[in-house]
Structures are given as C-alpha cells and as structure tokens.
Sequence to fold (372 residues):
Amino acid sequence: MISGHGGNSRELAAELGCSAEEITDMSSNLNPFGPPPGLLAHLRERLGEIASLPEVEARSMIRDFAGVHDLDPGQIMAGNGSTQFIHALPEMLGTRRALIVAPTYADYADGCRKAGIEPEYFLTYEKDSFHPDPDRLSRALYGVDTVFFCNPNNPTGVLTQKSELEDLARDHPEVRFVIDESYLPFVPGGEDKSLSKAGLPNIVCLNSMSKFFRIPGLRVGFLIASRQMIRAWALHMQPWAVNSLAQEAVRYLMQHRPGIQAFVRRTRRDMEEEREACAQRLAARTGLRVFPSAAYFLLARIENGPGSGQLCRALGRERILIRDCANFKGLSERFIRISLKRPQENQALLKALFRLLPGETSRESAVMGQGA
Fold:
C-alpha cells in the first residue's frame, strides 16, 4: 500500500503537539459542506441498529439506490466503500494485464499487485493539462484486458467526456473498463455524465458515498455492472459487507430526495464559485500553475521555489495539511493538490501561500527560512 494518502491530520497533530481538530486538513477530498442536514440526527436515532446484524446483502439499500438512479437492482453490488471493490476487482475479473490511466489514485495499482499483477501505466501529459488523448489510449489498449480510469480523475480533476469513454469501450469489447466515478457527484449535471447506464457489458462503474456526502467513516460504496458479472462476483463477496449505520445513511439519503437534492444543488453552486475564485487568486499571486478541475480539489505545479515536500512541511507548521503529489506515478516533487474547504479556511491557505511564495525571486528563500 502506498505511503502518503491524504487525511493524515492525526499524524501531523501528533508532530505539532496539538489536537487533530486544530489541523485544517486540505489533503483529503471530502465535501466541506457535508454531511447533509438531518443525516447525523437520523443516525443518532438509529444507533441501536448496531446491536443486530445488518441486512446480509444490503438489498433494501440497493433497491433505494437503484430507484433514485433509475438502475436495475440486479446490476448493483454494495460494499465496504469503493476501495473494497478496487482491491477485489483484479481477482474478480481474472485480470492478467492491467492498464492504469495515470497520474491517478494509487489503490488501483495496489489492488492489481494484491492479485499478483504488475500494472502498466498510460501516462497523460502536463502539456495537455493531463487530458487523456483517446487515440493514443486506444492504441495502448491492445493486449490489455482491464483498464482503470478515474473520472473525474484524482488528483488532476480532469473530466473525460462520457462519449469518449463509450467509444473506447465499444471499440475494445475485449477490454473491461473499470470507471471510478467517486468524484462525479461534485460535477454539475454529474448524473447525466455517468457510464452506469451505458448498457455496455464491458463497463464496470464504481460509486462512492463517502466523498460528496462526507461519510467516509461509514465505508459504503456501490459497483454497477452487467447482471452476468454481478451474479458471478457475488461468490467473491463476504456477507454483511455494509454495516448497519452505513445502510441507514444510504437509505436516508435516497428517501429524503427534496432536501438532499437542494443540498446537492447548493453545494455544487458554492463549490464552483469558490474553486474558480481560489484558482484565479493562486495563479495570479503565487506563480503556481493551477490546472483546470471539475472536482473540488486543485492540482498545481510549483513553477519556482521549493519542492512539494518542503512546501507541505512549511504549511504543516501553520497547521494546514495539503497533499504532496511526489508519489503519484507521472508527477514529481513539483506538484501539490489542494482539497478546498469553506471560504474562511481557503482564505487562510491563500494567505499562507502568499507568505511562503511571495515572488519570482524570493519564493525559495521564503520557505527555506521557515526551518524546513
């Protein structure tokens, strides 16, 4: 497993001798406006559910999810977060040769290696703002049986058009396309951009409830594929994979649609405005190259000055945690990822970066002087 996921606020707090609550964690891609109103109160009322076994295959939760998304329940499997599926899929698919579109989330490679497979990589280029070239990707797919594709992608924020992915899947029916749509709820109109209803037998979609609804501790996600695949894969799944409170959370989110839809609209609107404002200020004042993003995180290149590790340590001393992207395949110590939060916290980050990266000639000395 890769060392250096986001969300290590407890580790930083221990180093600084403070509480984790005092750390502004901008390294983990969670919706700062969540959880939705009413959800936590509902879970508190249902806390007694943990005294009994949960529904063994979470069928009620699956039916509710299917109804909201206009899907066939027989094409859905529920699990202990989308990560469970990422680690199980290479074995479930009988993968022999895997291709990962990168830079991207490290767990796709971890899942392949657990199955004894060393994955290959299709690297996207900075000069293209990390957009994958469909023709070049199509050529790279020959001889591959499984491709992992995050859409929108983490950490680049790139959203690939639904039609491009459908065309690739049609042109390569022998290849299974695992499309991780964990960040698609952050995209306005994301429901219409999902591949879950493409109707192609070689597409597998992953859906995470953790990020947008901010319930990562409950660990709940969905896999959407053909009925034939779901029947075969049921043999690989452990019983009671989704705990009682996670099932309650999903059922609440699916059954309280007017309030949840209002939360989704409001969140998307506020995120889009805040993301664009922060990206413009960062690019104008710090010299960072900020890449366009469809999600609520920003990938940036440090054009001059310190490396990513040094800058992250300097911010850490100010109790701000961002993601050092040096360990992403295809990136380097010049890249950072910022997971935006509420406006007040974003402003605190901007001010810190303005101090640490003050100008073209003095950026490096400014951070070096912080005692890194």
